[in-house]
Amino acid sequence: MTQCKTSKEIGGMGHSLKRKEDARFIQGKGHYVDDIKLPGMLYMDIVRSPYAYAKIKSINIEEAMKVPGVITVVTGKDLEKYKLHWMPTLMSDTQMVLPTDTVMYQAQEVCAVIATSKYAARDGREAVKVEYEPMKPVMDPFKSLDPAAPVLRTDKPGKKDNHIWHWQAGDKEKTAQVFANADVVIKQQMHIPRIHVVSIETCGCVADYDKVNHHLTMYMTTQAPHAIRTVIALVAGHVGLSEERIRVVSPDIGGGFGGKVPVYPGYVIAIAVSFLVGKPVKWIEDRSENLQADSFARDYHITAELAGTKEGKILATRFKVLADHGYTDAAANPSKFPLGLFSICTGSYDYNAAFVEADAVYTNKPPGGVAYRCSFRVTEAVQAIERLTDMFAKKIGKDPAELRMQNFIKKEDFPWHSPTGWIYDSGNYQAGLQKAMDVVGYAALRKEQAEKQARGELMGIGISTFTEIVGAGPSKDFDILGIKMFDSAEIRVHPTGKAIARFGTKSQGQGHETTYAQIIAEELGIPAENIQVEEGDTDTAPYGLGTYASRSTPTAGAAAAVASRKLRDKARKIAAYLLEVSENDLEWETGKFFVKGAPEKSKTIQEIVFAAYTNHPQGMEAGFEATHYYDPPNLTFPSGAYICVVDIDKETGAIHIRRFVAIDDCGNIINPMIVQGQVHGGLTQAVAPAMYEELIYDGEGNILNGTLMDYLVPTAVESPKWETGHTCTPSPHHPIGAKGVGESPTVGGPPAIANAIIDALSPFGITHIDIPITPYKVWKALKEHGAYDK
Ligand code: CDP
């Protein structure tokens, strides 16, 4: 009898296997776009607009062309000759690649300088002279809707205003009725400001057009290689670059967070130049360009309302949203839900009346709407509902933990039909909050707080009990440019029992090379160390929609499990043939089939795979490989209970996060260490919008904090010690019961911090401050509420 290894020994599910990819990362052997050097490669730099809204009167390239090494300067008019000056966005909007007459936002691409070195390209950029005729930009989204505002998108025939879309969900009349009869109504205007993903690696590409073979290889920083390939074919199909002639390769990526989903003009310009010049062209953004021109998220103005009883029962919520998407809507967007998944705004609570409506507008800000680690607007929704919940508790004088416990959807009420149309798959919110309260020592902290308040000290405890929504598809609801949102896995096992598995997703640091291997190891019994995982090459990977919004585990992770199970079915047939028994007489145990009642008669997966190439049953196809395109029947609904404890210095407004306990529920966990890492990183990204980050523009459209000197990104110094843990309610519809996790902390973290700060300030009657809550805002609010009056 062959002794099989345990799930742990083969690196199966639920084990903290060390990340396979880290060997190359920690040795500095990662391979990023900027590491690519091709023979004859040219370098591109981009001249950008200093104005937010201006006519281009002239572009003088004379001096630039004199710079040694400069080959050419490409303008919008040059691209227009090939109809390459416009492109679609993944949101089904359109965007200029290079302008022919008008610039629409500060830092917009105006023309591109191509040279033999990046230094020559930069010198050439400085020598280009552009004459502008500035116009008054529209920077305020509310004023953008004013009938007197200039119509910004004159490129759209018949467009008479700056309105992009209206969308609504829930029952308007029923909600209005509940509000009219409620004991208590809370109403708060909130702004979730525009922020940036600030990944360590900026965006960039090497476009390599091979004139002889009429083929483009595009190396680029993209989270969605296949979708990009399709977009390139849509933009450049008419010059002969059809999809079979395009290969998109996404090498290692230094963080994406949603910012590397959209198509940026730089990519298309590089392709156009490579096509025209016949040489590879490299374009890499510098840090300031990245911060000023792309990867923007949020900028939502929300009127948030909650109706409840004086005993603390939530009855209804109502949200009116104005979304400032800047010059164009650049993000990937599930087409049926223009507001993304904001409609998760009813949160973890049991009530059945809600109404949400939203309008999106154009302004002269750079393209917005990137789904920055927020599953398409969930961060905004969770901030609104969790702030409202705390305000409600304060208003009626109830403990916010007790009020949440009172209002949670009960674990036996899943699947839960939310009033805005979602079917939550599973959850146990009471267990999560209870665990967080136990870990933090909630009762003792409240006692300490009361004592401190009596001494005039400011201490706050903030809770956020959020429900996330991740895993787009299902394809009936979600598509990008019409392409249905499934995802894929292809597993090919070689005769010696070692495998290669390819996916349509693309890791940017999440550890897919490890976790996908663990899923396959668990399902097939092949050790994870013998499974090579590849992503990011459209020539080899099956079509997929990419990695963002915590969708990889719910979609591609599921595809890995189902493809493995297809192989296990084949393995069963081969084992039955080899052991000369019926398939029904076989049982599976990690890595082998054995005969029921006779465990000494068995075949390991390695023996079976070898037989698939050498000695398989007559009529059966040789080889051992399977592909699966997984279309999820529903999204997954991870959840979390976070508790934050802050101390605030009354004189300066300085905020110190003393404790932060995060209990997450992402269903069955593939790799606990990776999940913990995801949560640590995500929580630091939660501190960012809660306390530091906001892109600020003046009335002329100038960005006032467009460098990392003044756009504040929290570092390890500003991050508290994270105390993490988990509860587990498996997703009933996911093949391995897993839910996504990557963005949960970014979603659930900010309101916990905001609620803690407001809790500390509440003795002075302060009920709300918009994020980011800075020491200055705290000091100002305290001053306005008489805290410094003698
Ligand atoms: O789409 P993305 O990879 O960003 O997000 P995710 O599906 O939440 O996964 C992030 C990482 O956590 C991946 O390596 C997953 O395999 C891992 N994960 C896990 O180990 N267990 C889960 N239940 C969910 C995610």
Mean pLDDT: 96
The CATH class of the largest domain is Alpha Beta
CATH topology call of the largest domain: Aldehyde Oxidoreductase, domain 4
CATH architecture descriptor text of the largest domain: 2-Layer Sandwich
- Care to count the β-strands? 32
Helix content: 25-40%
| Largest sheet features | 7 strands, mixed
How many helical elements?
Answer: 19
Query: What number of structural domains do the residues give?
Result: 3
**How many angstroms does the end-to-end distance come to?**
85 Å
Question: Which word captures the global form?
Answer: globular
- Could you give me the name of the CATH homologous superfamily of the largest domain? Aldehyde oxidase/xanthine dehydrogenase, molybdopterin binding domain
Weakly predicted, low-confidence segments: none
- Our Rg estimate from Cα atoms comes to 28 Å
Strand order of the largest sheet: 3-7-1-14-11-12-13
Structure classification: alpha+beta
Q: Please report which band the strand proportion falls in: under 5%, 5-15%, 15-25%, 25-35%, 35-45% or over 45%.
A: 15-25%
Are any ligands bound, and if so which? cytidine-5'-diphosphate
